[in-house]
Write a structure and sequence with these properties.
Helix content is 66%, strand content 0%. The chain contains 9 helices and no strands. It is an all-alpha fold. The termini are far apart. It has one domain. Helix 5 packs antiparallel against helix 6.
Length: 254
C-alpha cells in the first residue's frame, strides 16, 4: 500500500495560502479584534452626538418654547444617530462573513472609522447654521463626510472580495447585490451632498432616506454560506468572542 508523500499531498480544505507578515496583503488573522475596536469607536461617536444637544430655557420661557428652539440640534442628532446606527449594523453584518483580515483591510476600516468619528463635528455645524451661505457650507461638509463613509464601505467590500477574505460558500447573488447597492449608495450620497447647492435641508433629508435603504442590512438576500466548514468556523468564532467577553466581565468583578 503506497502513501502520498507529505509534500505531494493536496491542500487541506478551506486552508488559505500563507501570506507574508509584511506588506498590504500581510495576514492579520480573524476579524475579532477589528470588530471589537470598530464597535468601540462607533459607540463613542454615536454617544458624542447627544453632547451637542442643549435645551436652554430662558427666564419666563416655557419648556415647550425652549424645546422648539433646540429643534435643529435635536433633528441633526436624530439624523446622525440614524446614520451611525445603520452603519454599525451593516458593519456587523458584513464582517460576519469575513473569514480573515489583512493589513489593507485594517487600513480601509480605519478610514471608515475616521469618517465616522468626524461626523459629530458637521452634525453640530448643521444644527448651528440653518440658513444662508453657512448652512450650505455646513451641509456640504456633512454630506461629504457621509460620502466618505460610503466610499470606505466600498473599499472594504471590494478589497475583501478581491483578496478572497470572505468565508467560503457566499452566494454569488449576495455578492452582486452588495456590489450594486454599495455603488448606488456612494453615488446617492454624492448626489445628496451636491443638493446643498440647491437647498441645504435636501441634503439632510436625502441622506436620511439613503440610510434607510440599508436598514435591514447590506443586501435583502442572505449570504447563504453553502460551505459547512465556513459555517462551523463562524459559529466557533462567535463562541470564542462570547467567551472572551465573559472573561473580561469576570476579571472586572474580581
Amino acid at each position: 500500500m503506497t502513501h502520498t508523500p507529505p509534500e505531494q499531498a493536496g491542500p487541506e480544505p478551506n486552508r488559505r495560502p500563507a501570506r507574508s507578515w509584511w506588506g498590504g496583503n500581510a495576514d492579520r488573522g480573524d476579524s475579532i479584534r477589528l470588530e471589537a475596536f470598530s464597535d468601540g469607536v462607533l459607540a463613542i461617536a454615536i454617544t458624542l452626538l447627544i453632547l451637542d444637544v442643549r435645551v436652554e430655557q430662558q427666564p419666563g420661557e416655557s419648556l415647550a418654547a425652549a424645546l422648539g428652539h433646540a429643534g435643529p440640534e435635536i433633528g441633526a442628532y436624530a439624523a446622525s444617530f440614524l446614520q451611525i446606527g445603520i452603519m454599525w449594523a451593516n458593519h456587523h453584518a458584513l464582517f460576519r462573513i469575513v473569514d480573515r483580515v489583512d493589513q489593507l483591510l485594517l487600513l480601509a476600516n480605519l478610514l471608515l472609522l475616521g469618517f465616522v468619528a468626524f461626523l459629530p463635528l458637521p452634525t453640530r455645524l448643521v444644527a448651528q447654521h440653518t440658513s444662508g451661505g453657512d448652512a450650505r457650507t455646513a451641509m456640504l461638509l456633512y454630506g461629504a463626510t457621509l460620502t466618505g463613509c460610503a466610499l470606505a464601505f466600498n473599499l472594504i467590500w471590494r478589497h475583501t472580495v478581491h483578496r478572497g477574505l470572505l468565508a467560503d460558500g457566499v452566494d454569488p447573488r449576495f455578492r452582486r447585490d452588495v456590489d450594486s447597492r454599495y455603488l448606488a449608495g456612494l453615488a446617492g450620497y454624492l448626489a445628496a451632498t451636491l443638493l446643498a447647492f440647491v437647498q441645504p435641508w435636501l441634503t439632510l433629508a436625502v441622506t436620511a432616506l439613503l440610510a434607510l435603504l440599508f436598514l435591514l442590512g447590506p443586501s435583502p438576500r442572505t449570504a447563504s454560506l453553502t460551505d459547512p466548514y465556513a459555517r462551523k468556523r463562524i459559529a466557533l468564532r462567535d463562541d470564542y468572542s462570547a467567551q472572551r467577553r465573559w472573561m473580561v466581565c469576570w476579571r472586572r468583578r474580581r
